[in-house]
Amino acid sequence: MIEQFRKYIVDNHLINKGDRILVALSGGVDSMVLAELLRRCGYDIAFAHCNFHLRGKESDGDEQFVREYADRVGVKLFVRQFDTMDYVENNKISVEMAARELRYAWFNDLINANEHSNGTDGSHPSNNSWIHLRFDKLALAHHADDQIETFIINLLRGSGIKGLRAMQPRNGMYIRPLLWASREEIKNFAVENGIQWREDSTNSDTVYLRNKIRHELMPVFDSIKPEAREKILESVNHLAAENQLYRELIKEKLYQIEKIDGVLHSINKRYFDKQLLFEWIRNFGFSFSLCESIFASFNGEPGKEFYSSEYQLVIEKETIDIFPIDLERTRPALSQQAEIHPVQTRPALSLITDNPNIAQLDYDSLKLPLKPRHWQQGDRFHPLGMRGSKLVSDFFNDNGFTTFQKKTTLILTDSEDEIVWIVGHRIDDRFKITEKTKTIYQIVAE
After folding, report:
1. Where residue 186 sits, what CATH number does that domain have?
2. What residues form DSSP beta bridges with 344?
3. 64: helix, coil or strand?
4. CA–CA dist 444, 123 (Å, integer)
5. Given phi > 0 = left and psi -120 to 50 = alpha, else beta, which region is 93?
6. What are the angstrom distances between the C-alpha of 140 and each of 11, 92, 214?
7. Prediction pTM value
8. Does a structural domain hold residue 67?
9. CA distance 83 to 251
10. What pLDDT, on a 0 to 100 scale, did the predictor assign at position 337?
11. How do residues 5-48 score in pLDDT, each as one tens digit?
């Protein structure tokens, strides 16, 4: 098994020379075998154990067991204790999801930390000095049977090809060196090599979906076809390969049709079917269920808006536009976005009428200083050539402004907040150049 283990690591490029590996160590047979294999192969490792306090004395017994093991083999151990049920209550999520979020957040902290002090967060390093961590990978003990169970869980959730490929040998910093081995192979190796482990009493509780699949569904598959597990794994591997090709083709397609202008991402609606739409918007945090609503709104009135945690999607007349919700945070300050360059000149200066980024105004009509800002509800101005005032929002709509353009177009105002210029589009008629103009005030928006 050791040689198969080494080969799998090499074939899948899981560990590089000099890597420091943090091993998630629960005390169960899978993680104990993983720890021993890594240790016996000579890799530079440390252990991380989570005590979720979900099984009373049994949880504390697991912690004591891994502490004794780490001391015996001389490997550094970090332990974090969690009030999992409190986290469940505060976040209104399941126990399984809470444990997942808590452990992965802590694992990320350990991997990304530059240094760590003994005792500050429940950790248990082997000395009391500051310890430089800088771990390169986190090793997880998922195996082939876990892979099959994950595939079935995702199948029941209605996952697409990406979900059905289940777990991968490597996902960023996370590696799974035992994904090739069955639960039976792992347990046999532990018995043959005198590796001790702790049994989790909840592993037999079929109230959990994974356990129900493991104890009730998989035996049915085994009875139908003796090599059912091997065939399911073959399908998972095929799906993983096909998913890679599919991703490359989707990326190429989106590259051809997506227009990017700063923080604005836009694609013409004519290119979309529902699946391509989802493959694009998922990159911005939109779910498939929301994709259904977005796609159904294609033929409705333009301007309908949808939101993910960080992005806004707007269905325009011809395009789908996506941009950050917090535009102020993602763009330069207004004074830097459009620098204002006033130039007082003689009336003899020729008028510029063909450059929308230059405004020439009657200097004596202005109340300085001029200030740039963005559109606000209720803004009115007197468009050049028009008698009376008009809502800026109506001006936007009449000129086919998209939601993104409305949010990002600069408006130049005087000291009394009267609109002087909708930058790049129209000056206010009250400040235009006339025969009585003595001094022209020229503004350039760059």
Report:
1. 3.40.50.620
2. 441
3. helix
4. 60
5. beta
6. 17, 27, 19
7. 0.68
8. yes
9. 42
10. 39
11. 999 999 999 999 999 999 999 999 999 999 999 999 999 999 99
